[in-house]
């Protein structure tokens, strides 16, 4: 069973899911029926992936996650498999549907402490799902490590126990699952790290909650897929001339550190800007001229020269920061560019560490700033958000976007793209080999090209992150940032 493609890219927080459950119950759906569907889906997955298991060991908590596991135990027993059930905590604590599952399934359970992991076991993890509320420790953490040490396959119900569905963070300790079976929609913890890795392969199963109920609780949170921005991708007009394809300006620092900006400029051309001009100090011109061909060059040494240059309104997007150095000069240039679409990256971000508010104040009004920090750069502009361990990466990006009135690309293996009005996307197509010098410079250039082509900032940013990930796959493991430049491919368009 797969979910309707429309909702397949949606992501619900655990609290959204609780609201969905509540509405499903009020609309007349049996919550125990949902539990049965969930448990049977888990059993089907277990049998599909481990037909030769010696024994399925169902570990049950006292919440509904444990109820799902008990139903899975029933279904597995019914299929003829050898099954053992262990319950964490006192049976008297079972309530609601979980109590009903234990009352109706005629299988004996033993206390969790009696479980001795053995080779051949397949563990069905129903200890905690959405209800995880405190850190896993003590005997349970020891058991998790024993299962991991024996490399027993774990099938997690909803989430690997110990993973926080809201943030993807581990609370104390967690299982490393081989498979995770979740219901109706993914939760942030399935996509954010380390949760994504701990889930293993993820299955999203339709247990029969109507899409209209899910839709009514849909937060503005999705996976970053082409469906999010395809409509903003402009088909290339057969009669286009280069000025209609956008004119991107990339600023370079001194000659010796101009490689980063060159990478951004070349990425901008490859990503479809009609023209790219590299603006740099006169002393850097010979170096730049020796390296660049299709990218045009323009010397700018003073603020007055910059003002003259940007009088040309055909220059419709700017990238400032890669290899730029010179924090004071950054701040002056940013002040001059504050009413234009701007990608601020790397040194461009760091230049505002003493007074981030000055940057945010300059970009009030219609959104035109895209910030592309990795975690280190993020902490320079938003130290309080970076230091607040209660916030998820989604919270951090959303709050930073609202504060700065910018589109935030909070980079990493699980890049989050957020805009000031609350829309958020989690990116999941980036291969780990994107973690290489210069890869962020390429991304900044792609975002700049999309802005120059007239895409709105959020769509420009999200599509650039996706395109960067796709280029990483195209270039393959072992690639350098130069290979990545050559692997940039056209964006999917609306049909
Ligand atoms: N979303 C849905 O539509 C459905 C959800 N179902 C299941 O319901 C689950 C959520 O159920 P619950 O809300 O009962 O929550 P859980 O079953 O995840 O856990 C809640 C219980 O665990 C305890 N607990 C939390 N953290 C602990 C820790 N570190 N150490 C010890 N005890 C801890 C809590 O005090 C509470 O008693 C989902 O994950 C899913 O598996 C299914 O039954 C099917 C329907
Ligand atoms: N482990 C990873 N998996 C996937 N993508 C990654 C990983 N680590 C980093 N990236 C991506 O690689 C790029 C690195 O950018 P950045 O940190 O600015 O590096 P640089 O300054 O060297 O270009 C970002 O787009 C980031 O999202
Ligand atoms: K679980």
Automatic annotation (TrEMBL):
Q: Where, by residue number, does (6S)-NADPHX bind?
A: 64-68, 129-135, 158, 260, 323, 374, 441
What is the reaction catalyzed?
(6R)-NADPHX = (6S)-NADPHX; (6R)-NADHX = (6S)-NADHX; (6S)-NADHX + ADP = AMP + phosphate + NADH + H(+); (6S)-NADPHX + ADP = AMP + phosphate + NADPH + H(+)
Checking InterPro entries in the record gives: Carbohydrate_kinase_pred_CS, CARKD, Nnr, Ribokinase-like, YjeF_N_dom, YjeF_N_dom_sf
Keyword NAD applies: yes
**Keywords attached to this entry:** ATP-binding, Isomerase, Lyase, Metal-binding, Multifunctional enzyme, NAD, NADP, Nucleotide-binding, Potassium
Q: From its record, what is one biological process in GO terms?
A: nicotinamide nucleotide metabolic process
What the record says about family reads: In the N-terminal section; belongs to the NnrE/AIBP family.
Q: Which HAMAP family does the protein's record reference?
A: NADHX_dehydratase, NADHX_epimerase
Q: What is this protein called?
A: Bifunctional NAD(P)H-hydrate repair enzyme
């Amino acid at each position: 069973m797969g979910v309707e493609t429309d909702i397949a890219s949606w992501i619900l927080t655990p609290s959204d899911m609780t609201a969905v459950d509540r509405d499903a119950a009020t609309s007349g759906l049996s919550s125990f029926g949902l539990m049965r569907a969930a448990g049977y889906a888990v059993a089907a997955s277990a049998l599909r992936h481990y037909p030769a298991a010696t024994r399925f060991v169902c570990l049950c908590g006292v919440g509904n996650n444990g109820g799902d596991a008990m139903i899975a135990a029933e279904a597995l027993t019914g299929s003829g498999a050898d099954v053992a059930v262990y319950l964490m905590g006192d049976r008297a604590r079972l309530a609601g549907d979980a109590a009903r599952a234990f009352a109706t399934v005629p299988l004996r359970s033993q206390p969790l402490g009696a479980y001795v992991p053995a080779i051949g076991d397949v563990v069905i993890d129903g200890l905690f799902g959405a209800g995880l509320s405190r850190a896993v420790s003590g005997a349970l953490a020891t058991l998790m490590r024993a299962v991991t040490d024996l490399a027993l396959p774990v099938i997690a119900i909803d989430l690997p126990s110990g993973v926080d569905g809201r943030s993807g963070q581990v609370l104390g300790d967690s299982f490393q699952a081989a498979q995770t079976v979740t219901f109706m929609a993914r939760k942030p913890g399935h996509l954010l790290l380390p949760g994504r890795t701990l889930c293993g392969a993820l299955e999203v199963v339709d247990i029969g909650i109507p899409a209209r109920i899910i839709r009514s609780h849909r937060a503005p949170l999705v996976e970053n897929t082409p469906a999010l921005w395809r409509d903003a991708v402009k088909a290339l007009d057969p009669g286009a001339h280069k000025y209609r394809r956008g004119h991107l300006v990339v600023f370079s620092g001194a000659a010796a550190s101009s490689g980063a900006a060159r990478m951004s400029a070349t990425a901008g051309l490859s990503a479809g800007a009609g023209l790219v001009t590299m603006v740099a100090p006169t002393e850097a011109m010979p170096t730049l001229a020796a390296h660049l061909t299709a990218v045009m060059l323009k010397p700018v040494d003073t603020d007055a020269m910059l003002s003259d240059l940007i009088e040309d309104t055909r220059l419709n997007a700017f990238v400032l920061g890669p290899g730029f150095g010179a924090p004071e000069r950054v701040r002056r240039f940013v002040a001059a560019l504050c009413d234009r679409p701007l990608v601020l990256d790397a040194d461009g971000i760091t230049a505002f560490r003493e007074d981030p508010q000055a940057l945010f104040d300059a970009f009030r009004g219609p959104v035109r700033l895209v910030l592309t920090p990795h975690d280190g750069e993020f902490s320079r502009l938003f130290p309080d958000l970076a230091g607040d361990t209660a916030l998820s990466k989604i919270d951090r990006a959303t709050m930073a976007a609202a504060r700065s009135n910018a589109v935030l690309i909070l980079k990493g293996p699980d890049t989050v793209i957020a805009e000031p009005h609350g829309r958020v996307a989690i990116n999941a197509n980036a291969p780990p080999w994107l973690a290489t010098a210069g890869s962020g410079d390429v991304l900044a250039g792609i975002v700049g090209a999309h802005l120059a082509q007239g895409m709105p900032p959020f769509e420009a940013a999200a599509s650039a992150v996706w395109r960067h990930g796709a280029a990483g796959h195209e270039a393959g493991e072992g690639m350098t940032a130069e290979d990545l430049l050559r692997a940039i491919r056209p964006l999917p368009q609306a049909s």
